[in-house]
Every structure is written in C-alpha cells, then in structure tokens.
Amino acid sequence: MSQIVVMPVVLPLIAAALLLLLGDKQKRWRSLLNVAASVAGLAVAATIVREVDRDGMAVYLASNWQAPFGIVLVADRLSAMMLLLVGVVGVCAALYAEAGWARAGVYFHPLFQIQLMGLNGAFLTGDLFNLFVFFEVMLAASYGLHLHGSGFARVRSGLHYIAENLLASSLFLVGLSVLYGVIGTLNMADVAAKLTLVPAGDRGLMHAGATILAVAFLIKGAIWPLNAWLVPAYSATSAPVAALFALMTKVGIYTLLRLWTLLFSTEAGTSFHFGAPVLLYGGLATIAFGALGLMASVRLGRIASFSIIVSSGTLIAAMAVGVAAVTSAALFYMMTATLSVSALFLLVELTERVHRSGAPQSHRVSLPPDEDTNLDDEEEPLVGRAFPVSLALLGLTFFTCALLVAGLPPLSGFIAKFSLLAALTGMEGQASFAGWLLFALLSIAGLAATISLSKAGIAHFWAPGGQLAPHLKSVEAVAVIALIVSCVLLTVYAERVMHYTRATAAALHAPSSYIRTVLSAQHGRPL
C-alpha cells in the first residue's frame, strides 16, 4: 500500500514526459495518452480510497529516509478523498478538451498532466516545503493552461492571476521561514508534535509565521477580500481548464483544514483554535460577497465563478466552527460542490452555442399558417417541428446542475446543505450564534443561486435563442454527464459517503494518530 501512494505523482509526470516526446504531429496519440493517463490516475485514486478506508493511513518514505528527515507522502482519508476528486474532474476535463480545446494551442496535454501532478502532490505531501514545491508546480502549469487559446480577456485576467499567485507564493516562503526558525522542522507531523515545546516568548513569532502562511492559502482559497482575481480568471479561460481550476481553490481549503486541525488542535495548549474568529467571519463575509455576485451576474461563466466563492466561504466558515459533525458535513458539501461547479463550467460553452447556431432547415415546415397556428418569433409555424436532441440534453443537464449548485432537492447538493445546516443547528453555547449566522447566509446564498441560475436558464433555453439546435459532440456530452452522474451516485450512496466523511472528520479533530503514524513509519524495501 505504501508504494502505490507515490503513483498519483509519478504517473502524470511520466505521461507528461511521453507527451512531450510524441511531438505535435502525433495529435491522435497524444489525445489518447492524455485521456488514458487521466483514467489510470482515477483508478489509482479509487484504489487508494478503498485501501485507506479498509486499512487506515499509508506513508511513503522517499529513499527510505524516516520522517522527519526525509520527504514523506501521506495518504489518509482526507487526502485520498481529494485524490478521487482530482481523478474524476481530471478525466471529464480531459475528455471535454479532446473535442477541440486541446488543439487550440501547443503543449496542452503535457501542461494538463503537470497540473494533475501538482494537485495530487499537494494533497499527498506531509512536508510544508514540498507542499510549496507542488504548489508551484501546480501554479506554473495553470499559467499556461489559463492562457491556452489566447485572446485579450485571457491575457488581461492572466496577468492579474499570475500577480496574485506570485504574491501568495512569496508569503508562503516567508511563513515557512518563520516557522522553521521557531520550530526547526517543516514536517507537518513533527511540527505538530513540537508545537507545545515552543517557549512562551516565541509563541507570538510562531503565530505570526502561521498567519503569514494562512494568508497565502486564503488567497488561493478565495476568501474575501482577497478573491478579486478569481471571477475574471475563471470566467475568461477555456471550459475544460475552468473545470479543472475548480479544484485549485480546494487546494487552499484543504491545506488550511489540514494544518489548522493538525497544529491548533486541543493538544496545542494556548494555541488551541488560533485564528478561528478571523476564519469564521472571513468565511461568512465570503459567502455574502458570493451571494451578491450571483444576484448581479448574467453570464453563466461568472455565475459558476461566484458559486466557487460561495463554496469556499462555506468551507472556511464550517472549518472554523471546530466541530467534528460540521466538518463531516462540510467534506460532503466539498465533494458535491466541486463536481457540480465543474459540470457548470463545462456547460458554459455549450449553452453559448445555443445563440451561435441556426435552427436546421429540416426543422421548419412549409405549410402556410392560419389563425389557429402557433408561430415562433420568426413567424414560422411551431406545429410539426422536431425538438432538437442536443437542446433537450443541454436543458436537462443544465436543470440538474442548477439543482446541485443551488442545493435544491432531491440531489446531493440538497443533502449536503441539509446535513450541514442540521449540524449547525445542533451546536450549543457561544458557537450557536455563529452557527445560526452561517445557517442564514447559506440559505440566502442558495436563494441567490436559484434566482441567478433561473435567469440564465430562461435566457438560454426559453428566450428566442432557446429554439436553436447547438452542435454537441459526443465526448463533450460524456464529460458533462459523467460529472452529473457522479453527483447522482453521491445522492444514492449518501449514507456510505457520510460514514466515510464522519470518520475523516473524527481523525482530523484528533490528530494524534496522524502524528504517531507518520513519525513511526519504518523503512521499507528499496524500490
């Protein structure tokens, strides 16, 4: 089991190298290899989830150097769940890109695999410095993917995107330096074990380093007011890249959740839940900002981007509550929100084709209208016209996606919000006020998403442009339907998934097992 942990990093790296060797002339082989590598990565992620759920954590010691002296990769319940999300979204984005976007510029396939490598490495690493390395690998690939296809809007938003991430990377390094100077180690488990040994006189410096580090992750996690870069960047880039970028904000959320529960748990002494009020009210402000953005948005790409901001605020605020039941519900919410928003990003381009396509002549009838004939806006008879299959499929997937994003019954979006709201209302004491405030903002954000997506649905499928039949390729349909089906599976198997998230939340809020397992991992057989 410990050997398979390295595969989510090695597999896309090897695939990227092979894709570079194939050259531009082998376009078909490059497409097949990119999709095949993504599918293999999904299979590896599913295997890791199954093994972790059955046997517990797995630790990979690079070059057999024991922690904290060497590089470690750790697969626990949380990281395995994130790997599975990367696998599902990665396969669907790769399939969708093969319909045309992969040929809009050079090096799309290698950059795509390097992006997957950075995401997987960030979720697996057990060392803060190597987290920075994978963070930069992920960002470097995202710069190229964001600009893929060129265009003024992508270049303009790309400059802002790069500037913001360079600032975050600089803060990341400063925070690492301060923490290393105070504690003397960067292994996450070792930092948590030695945190209580920090003298009282150095606690302020340690908190300053943790704060600087947190700001870097909060920029990536799109907390208000540090999220001005997200909507222009995500709405300007291509559809498959935007779907993949839905995972990028989750890297910041994941890292905050991992480090905050690991370093500032009940065993941290006076540092217990350090920064919780800032995270809580910052998350609430982010939800409010996202809800206002949803109400003001008309374009579907901006609606999807503001939906990411709402989900980020929800996750940050839920994490800051510090209750295992709320964290468990938030993890289920993270899965359904990521999959549904990724599907919504893929639908952006497809729904825009409704207005760019013309209705086929075969759908028109030549009979002269009489006073009882229903006419369309072009004074053509509606009777006898076949309803386009592609338009019906788009309308159905958009409706399903709207239910998921808005959190309406009966799909997993409703189950996620209901379980989160139920956990919040069950809290007692001072935390109950924050819980009810989060409850209210979640309800308002759901209403805002419902109104915004309803307006978008009317504009695309009910207004005059909705009668046109867009051209829909099979791989595009498969990619969108696969994401929707994933959410349906979350609905059908909600109890089993929640059992997994409850165990994950319990492990996060009691990190002694994580610390002990990582630091006591023994040397294995040489590879």
Give the biggest beta sheet. Answer: 2 strands, antiparallel
Q: Give me the number of helical elements.
A: 20
Number of strand elements: 2
- Backbone CA Rg: 24 Å
> N-to-C terminal Cα separation, in Å?
13 Å
Can you put this structure into words, describing what you see?
The protein is mostly helical. The protein has helices spanning 7-22, 27-55, 77-97, 108-124, 128-146, 152-183, 188-194, 203-220, 230-236, 239-245, 248-263, 276-296, 300-321, 324-356, 389-406, 412-425, 431-462, 474-492, 494-508, 512-519, and strands at residues 58-61, 72-75. The longest helix is centred in the middle third of the chain and has 33 residues, at 324-356. The two termini are 13 Å apart. It contains 20 helices and two strands. The radius of gyration is 24 Å and the shape is globular. Strands 1-2 form a two-stranded antiparallel ribbon.
Q: Can you describe this structure in just a few lines?
A:
This protein is mainly α. It has helices at residues 7-22, 27-55, 77-97, 108-124, 128-146, 152-183, 188-194, 203-220, 230-236, 239-245, 248-263, 276-296, 300-321, 324-356, 389-406, 412-425, 431-462, 474-492, 494-508, 512-519; strands at 58-61, 72-75. Residues 358-372 and 382-386 have low confidence and may be disordered.
